[in-house]
Amino acid sequence: MGGDELNYVHEAFETNWVAPLGPNVDAFERSIEKELGNAVHVAALSSGTAAIHLGLELLGVGPGDEVLCQSFTFSASANPILYLGAQPVFVDSETDTWNMSPELLREAIEDRIKNHRKPKAIIAVHLYGMPYKIEKIRSIADAFEIPILEDSAEALGSWYKGTSCGTFGDVGILSFNGNKIITTSGGGALVTRNKTLRDKAVFLATQARDEAPHYQHSHVGYNYRMSNVLAGIGRGQMEVLKDRVSARRKNYEFYLNSLSSQNELSFLPEPKDYFSNRWLSCILTSCYDMRETLRMALLEQNIESRPLWKPLHLQPVFKDSKQYLDGTSEVLFQRGLCLPSGSNLSQEDLERVSETIKNALS
Ligand SMILES: *Cc1c(COP(=O)(O)O)cnc(C)c1O
């Protein structure tokens, strides 16, 4: 925590705004809007997953539809496709950002259209905080008139050409889960430049209650709004977002500097005009065995590390889905390792991690 969170939480208690609405929710939304810029409107929700669910519904996804989704991501990017009775179609990554390959995206769209199944939406992800190929993905989406759901759960504080991640999609989503760069313990947000969409998201998130003195419903609603208590944590966390981003980037710089002489390892540099929050610091090893050797050597020192996300097309739960692949995400999964990346790592911690890696390699 940063420092001011508890004051805002106390305020919620003292004013008895212990509900999924109130002054902290409003102020948290305004502070996210201010941080992101680009004239967006924000709806604070109970999780990033809830935001993806509502976002897809607002983009018109329903039973039987197909939705294109980056395969190299966390399962929460794709699960809401199934909540809506739709089907995911997975698209592989490219090697510059590790995110959705524009070439495979185009191939997938053209092939699905040939099969008379024009996709309803594209879910593109800024994985580990690295922005995807913003302009290429946008121009393909526009050419085929398919909306983008921008999964920015890991990329608050990242930007491309000076514009914040979270503001590039027709709908963007953020996560404030406990593991993210800032947190409300659990929480998320839907982001859009379209005020009507934002208001519709709030309507659906609060049980879709029509205007009437009694409870009247003409839509299926959800209970997805953020608690005013947790939004208080969020207000305090927004004040330290910049510090968190700089701490994460320092972790990455440290690993890069101390390990760059190791020929077996490589890093993911920022392409020109890219700024990553470096949510997690990741390395690529030269093969699966080396990845496992390093992971076990770290574990022996009681240091947790983790393979990169397992591509969703390899997950048993999605095994029957259509896929457009070139092997990139499978290689990343085999060879990649997420290193300790917390905002509170000390210099000593970082040195211990890098020494352990160097020793294992020698
Ligand atoms: C964390 C995460 C989500 C889900 O957010 P929650 O707030 O945990 O529901 C979705 N997509 C990605 C890429 C994530 O990392």
From TrEMBL:
SUPFAM superfamilies: PLP-dependent transferases. Pfam families: DegT_DnrJ_EryC1. The modification N6-(pyridoxal phosphate)lysine is found at K180. InterPro entries: DegT/StrS_aminotransferase (IPR000653), PyrdxlP-dep_Trfase (IPR015424), PyrdxlP-dep_Trfase_major (IPR015421), PyrdxlP-dep_Trfase_small (IPR015422). CDD domains: AHBA_syn (cd00616). Transmembrane segments: none annotated. One of its GO terms (molecular function) is transaminase activity. The keyword DNA damage does not apply. The keyword Transferase applies. GO terms for biological process: polysaccharide biosynthetic process. Keywords: Aminotransferase, Pyridoxal phosphate, Transferase. The active site is at K180 (proton acceptor). Belongs to the DegT/DnrJ/EryC1 family. This is Pyridoxal phosphate-dependent aminotransferase.
